[in-house]
Design brief:
With about 300 residues, the chain is mainly beta. About 5% of the residues lie in helices and about 50% in strands. The relative contact order is 0.13.
Amino acid sequence: MFVRNRALTAVVTLLLTACGGGNDNPAGNGNTGNFRATIDGAAWTANTVGSAAAAGGIFTITGVQVGSATGMTMTLYAIGSPGTFPLGTGPTVAGGIASVTQGSSIWSTPLSGAAGTVTVTAVSPTRIAGNFAFNAPPLLGSTQTNTRAVTAGAFDIPVSGGPATLVVPDNAGSKVTGTAAGQAFNAATIVTVTSPTIGGTFTFGASNAQQSMNVILSNYTGVGTYTMGSGGVARTITLTNVTTPTGSWGGSAASTVGTMVITSATSSRIKGTLSATLQPIGSGAPTTLNVSFEIGIQ
């Protein structure tokens, strides 16, 4: 929540700048461009548009429709090439957050990992273009109760930053996707708890607003196939759901049966797949987990 609120503070600052004094360059970098969408069925086109680019593939796109005093912002992380990315993620995941403002009210994509998508069709040190759609509930503590549905979004924006804009560090833009407890899982936040060393332990956590998982792999040796939950070593998975079916599973070697396959491993990034059957912690029925992962080592 801290990361999301900090990002939204920056969003509010950018939008207030855009609304004040007739400034046509809210990002302060001399950029103008095309930024439009449909919000709750009504056409929205930004009169003032700005885009700020930071080294490492981080982009912030802002726009305000002056007549309706409605603003929109997208902050994208780890974008170094065209592709489709989730909205509703934190800065450790390749994707981003999006928000709508009107007056003092703010609606923002939750950290669900699945609040929408942005398809970047072109990206260079001088331009970014693409399409998007998302759903944004009101920010926590707001007096608003409605969710804003943003569809048919498109942008084509000049950016600044030079060649370094597209140099995304190899440990940036992690992702964990698949199914967990019968639900689609897309991580919004990923944390490397223990960086792997040969013979040591590799541990990571992945979560969104509905689910979280923690994975411990001991006796790590790099690329290969590992049996989870056997051999008397700490190779465990813990899965927790806060939505139906609620509960927790795994948590010990005895309650984990599965396989981790590491297909690529460097000092900065590990890729592979993980599948397991997990026993409940307490009462309930067993459940399954099947995900692919790319973990940037922080």
